[in-house]
Amino acid sequence: MVFAPRVEDKGTAAFILHRQMNIESQTVHDTTYGGAIHVSSSNSDHADSAVMTIINKYGCDQRNMLPLLHELQAEVGYLSPEIMEAVAERLGTTVGQVHGVATFYSLFSTEPKGRYVVRLCDSPPCHIEGSKAVLEAVKAELGISEGETTEDGMFTLETVSCLGLCGVGPAMMVNDDVYGNLKPEMIPHILAGYREEN
After folding, report:
1. What is the pLDDT of residues 64-95, one digit of tens each?
2. Would you state the pLDDT for residue 48?
């Protein structure tokens, strides 16, 4: 993990944490299913070839569930019921168990979200450092409240109980980019950078 300056505000830098989410996995060959899983046409909404390639890449070891779900969400944007059924079939477990994992971790989503998911930390340290004012600035800039997605489908706003960055609070994530030492006046510039990417 490397901190690099991202936004400057009167001598105070907000930092972005570039997280390397490249999860290396061992390929497990499953002789029971001939090394591949085949999903019936009823599961075909999101079970396209890219999704099936990812599912087959991780083999049938249930210990691979977290990296498998992470990669599937990165590919599709969320974990649909069809995807969870295909994962359960491949791993030899129940859909309920896959759903339980997908709903336990706050960074997984079982519903479609915006292209950019803005997660603002509301832990006690971030709250003391001013996360409420930062949240109000994000809401004003995007024109949405927590749990909502902008009409253009570009941004979804969420608050989370902790991002684990108490030393640089208030902190916020936009997808995998993490910003710290935030001030409300920084928000328009940060979000404009994501709008420009389109």
Report:
1. 999 999 999 888 889 999 999 999 999 999 99
2. 67
* Residue 22: partners with Cβ closer than 8 Å, 6 or more residues away: none
Q: Could you read off the pLDDT of 106-128 as tens digits, one per residue?
A: 788 898 889 999 999 999 999 99
Residue matched to tokens 């490397």 = 2
Among 143, 147, 173, smallest CA distance to 158 is for: 147
Residues 6+ apart with CB under 8 A from 58: 25, 28, 64, 67, 68, 90
Cβ-based neighbours of 84, under 8 Å, separated by 6 or more: 95, 98, 99, 102, 110
Per DSSP, the three-state class of 102 is: helix
Collapsed DSSP state (helix, strand, coil) of residue 180: strand
Q: All domains of the chain, ordered by start, with CATH?
A: 2-20+113-196 (3.40.30.10), 41-104 (1.10.10)
Q: Which amino acid is at 146?
A: E
